[in-house]
Amino acid sequence: MPDEANPGGAPEPQKPEETSAPKGAGEPSAPQAAPPPAGGPESPSAAAPPVEKPAQESAAPTVPAEPKPAAPAAAKPAAPAAAAKPAAPPAPKAPPVMQTTPWEGELVEDLKEEFGDKIKDYSTYVGQSFLVADVAAVIPIIDYLKIEQGFDYLVDITAVDYPEKPERFELVWILYSFDRNERIRIKARVKDGQKAATCFGVHLTADWLEREVYDMFGIEFEGHPNMTRILMPDGWSGFPLRKDKSIVDMDNRWVRENIGIESGQ
User: Fold this and answer.
1) CA angle, corner 52, sides to 50 and 54, nearest 5?
2) Binning pLDDT at 50, 70 and 90, where does residue 4 land?
3) What is the largest CA-CA distance in the chain?
4) Of 168, 229, 233, 174, which is closest to residue 205 (Cα–Cα)?
5) Which domains does the chain have, with CATH numbers?
6) 16-64 pLDDT, tens per residue?
7) How far is CA 184 from CA 108, 121, 229, in A?
């Protein structure tokens, strides 16, 4: 008797067997074929069409690379600037003014009483006392200071050249007193070619000191026993510490004439 649930008597489609995926498989299994349609045995024509594999995604279209901009043309080097004219040398600075203060004291009063207006000035500069006198009065002043005031050591005699002044040279005698522990200077001016009196009769050391002044500046001392050079070689022409002649020119001339070389520099 036919089944009411299946009046046509057609065979029921068979359920596909459930298969378990192998353990550990991480990839999905291939799709199962669809069951054959009801009403007859499976046939090739009734077989489920093969599952088409999805088409592979087409490769992304190649985007053409943008062309690189051409390198800029090398700039031509700028023409070198004209060399600047050297700046004019600065004007020489004026010599500093010697800031002196009056020299006062018992010794000054004694000198004023003894020599009066033959001594023109009494001053002190940075703790060093000096007087300015007529050149004719210098030796009597030095003798008085030695005998009466204890300045028995003639330390030095030197000079300074002022070519622009009528009395070109300033002579300087430096005296020292051991008893007083005091030093003073005596200054006097002479013209070029004018002679000063020698101090040799008061201080024997004036022999070498006056010769040195003569050798360097050409100033002669009247009454000196041996007014000759003491530092420069024989045959030297000129006086090295005068400001109107170059010491280099003097040296070159001497070495050419006496050693036979072009320059000693």
Assistant:
1) 165
2) very low
3) 182
4) 174
5) 101-231 (3.30.460.80), 233-265 (no CATH)
6) 444 444 444 444 444 454 555 454 444 444 455 555 555 555 555 566 6
7) 11, 13, 27
